[in-house]
Design goal:
The structure is a single chain. The chain is mainly alpha-helical. The protein has helices at about 5-15, 25-30, 45-55, 65, 85-90, 110-125, 135-150; strands spanning about 40, 60.
C-alpha cells in the first residue's frame, strides 16, 4: 500500500518521542489521509449497529448480500448442547456475552481459551452441511485440536 508522502512521513514521525504506538496513531501523526470503512460483507445488519453508532455514525452498513444473513444450523443442532451453549449459538441472538465469575488473568486465560474452543467446536458441528465447506473450517478444527492437546479443553 502506498500513501503520498510516506517516506518523508516515516522519517519525520520516527524521530518523535513516543514511537511504538498503533499504526493508526502513526499514520494520523504523519497526516496521512484517512479513508474510513463504509461497507462490510462480513457482518449482518444487527452486528453492524455498534460499530456504525460508535465509530462511523451514518456511514457504516452491511452489503446488500450480507444484511439479512443469519447463521444456518443443521437440524437437531441443540440436542446435546448445554443450556448456555444453546443460547450462545442460537441464531436469534447475533451477539452473546458470556460472563465468567472467577479469577481473572492478565495476558493468558486458559479458561477463556477452553471456552472459545468449545464454542467453536459446537458451532462447527452445528453448522448446516453447505456452510461447513468454508475455507476457514479446517483452521477452526486445527485450532480446537491444538487446544485439546494443550489441555485447555
Amino acid at each position: 500500500m502506498c500513501w503520498p508522502g510516506w517516506r518523508w512521513a516515516t522519517c519525520k514521525a520516527a524521530a518523535r518521542p513516543g514511537l511504538g504506538g498503533s499504526v493508526y496513531e502513526f499514520l494520523k501523526s504523519a497526516q496521512v489521509a484517512e479513508f474510513p470503512l463504509d461497507e462490510t460483507f462480513r457482518l449482518n445488519a444487527p452486528l453492524t449497529r455498534f460499530p456504525e453508532s460508535k465509530f462511523y455514525p451514518g456511514r457504516y452498513r452491511p452489503t446488500t448480500a450480507s444484511a439479512d444473513q443469519r447463521l444456518r444450523l443443521g437440524d437437531g443442532w441443540d440436542q446435546d448442547a448445554a443450556s448456555w451453549e444453546r443460547i450462545a449459538l442460537d441464531p436469534d441472538y447475533p451477539l452473546c456475552i458470556l460472563l465468567h465469575d472467577g479469577p481473572t488473568a492478565g495476558t493468558s486465560n486458559p479458561f477463556e481459551v477452553a471456552l472459545a474452543a468449545r464454542v467453536a467446536r459446537k458451532l462447527f458441528a452445528a453448522m448446516a452441511a453447505e456452510d461447513t465447506a468454508d475455507a476457514h473450517a479446517p483452521e477452526a478444527i486445527r485450532s480446537a485440536s491444538s487446544s485439546r492437546r494443550l489441555g485447555y479443553i
